[in-house]
């Protein structure tokens, strides 16, 4: 019966209530202090486009950039000259600097058009410094761009697939400056829970303290656990052991509803009080058809089409179904399935149960 709700109705994705919470590695539910990526951004020019670049009239910043670049290359002062190239595009370049990236290592970069260019296909990014939030340059990017989308235009129609004004360069930037962060000098490190929870934080501390001689852990709040390394200089060894410890995370009871697609996800800890549920409604079926009316032979008249509409109304009578108090997830789904209702109706019922104060879970609608 539960299978029919999940597959035939394409309505709900439900977590099995009978299964216990699985234990997961600590590295999969926490972030380690200092082990993070940093966002980089830069402004540059893509050249070599086949007439699909920025127009100089609508993109004055592209004109200024070309003038400045050529001036630095010794071409001379071009201010006031009639630049009318369509083979250059101003772009914004973004990248993520991985944690502990060393000088000389290469990272991927994203290139996005800033002006009115129609495509970056076939272009080459010129040397572009990439800065962090502190304004310092951490990497330099350059190279031919790879565009996934395409765009073609004719006299009366055009065809576009993907986004041809966004491109990517694999290993397109070289790290020029490292972020100073030395784990060996630290005597303690903090673990940030990705989903803050009092119970999970306590379990993490207990799991770490159970390994005597590695480290001592103390939960500071629902989202932070501080770990003190017993012997100075053993941070790496301690973290390599800690990140593989098995912990059973605890999650709050929640029901998530996507009203657009009719998807319902119900957590295993969801409980409801005893309620009586009745769901009924009208179904109106309208069918349109057309009949051809022709005049009699050898008579004066015209052949006309006569529309015909058939309307049928179906009313479904549904009695009350009682769902017992403090039922489990499986009992809740079986109770709703017994009424024989669809996804949108289940959504309405869950909202009504929440409004009645009988649903003991967070109801999130996305």
From TrEMBL:
Residues 1-22 form the signal peptide. Keywords: Bacterial flagellum, Cell projection, Cilium, Flagellum, Periplasm, Signal. InterPro entries: Flag_FlgI. It is found in: Bacterial flagellum basal body. Its main location: other. It comes from the Bacteria. Assembles around the rod to form the L-ring and probably protects the motor/basal body from shearing forces during rotation. Belongs to the FlgI family. The basal body constitutes a major portion of the flagellar organelle and consists of four rings (L,P,S, and M) mounted on a central rod. PANTHER family: FLAGELLAR P-RING PERIPLASMIC PROTEIN FLGI, FLAGELLAR P-RING PROTEIN. This is Flagellar P-ring protein. It comes from Psychromarinibacter halotolerans.
